[in-house]
Amino acid sequence: MGNVFGRRSQPTRVTEQDRAVLQMKQQRDKLKQYQKRITLQLEKERLLAKQWLQDGKKEKALLLLKKKRYQDQLLDKTDSQISNLERMVQDIEFMQIEMEVIEGLKIMCIEDVERILDETQESIEYQRQIDEMLAGALTQEDQEAVLAELDAITQGEDVELPEVPTEPIPEVPEAAKAGTERREAKDTAHRETLTA
Q1: Residue pLDDT, tens place only, 146-163
Q2: pTM above 0.85, yes or no
Q3: Where are the domains of the chain?
């Protein structure tokens, strides 16, 4: 009879960590309210102490300032408690995020490992096919040449390269440079008129 409309109660998604975080945030808010109330009270007491000094009640003003000093110390303690609570809330929230990430990584890791194994197997098969194709396409002489080149590279021997000329490159006369520049300018102007 508890379900009047036939709805089943769904389990709450609020965890113990969520409740702890909520309680800490509520405690933090209460401490901040307390801090504001004390700050206002301290300001009033400072003004009252100033008034008593003007009235010549030095001892009362001194007692009030001592009380103010004590409450300042309480405010400092309250500040440290608030920062501790905020740090604890952040730590708990960060740990919850870490747990979600770790759970996600566990699932992803199995899938990634399977994918990597599949890709590796495909790569091995592809390499084997390439080796078979190359083995059938190269003649015995080609294979010997490839092996000789490989030996030369691994032994540090230089592969024969063509000779590089040692003669200096001749200078281009000024008249030839000017003619080349004019031709390039004409070609550029001609291309621009064609594109326009």
Answers
A1: 788 877 777 765 556 667
A2: no
A3: 16-152
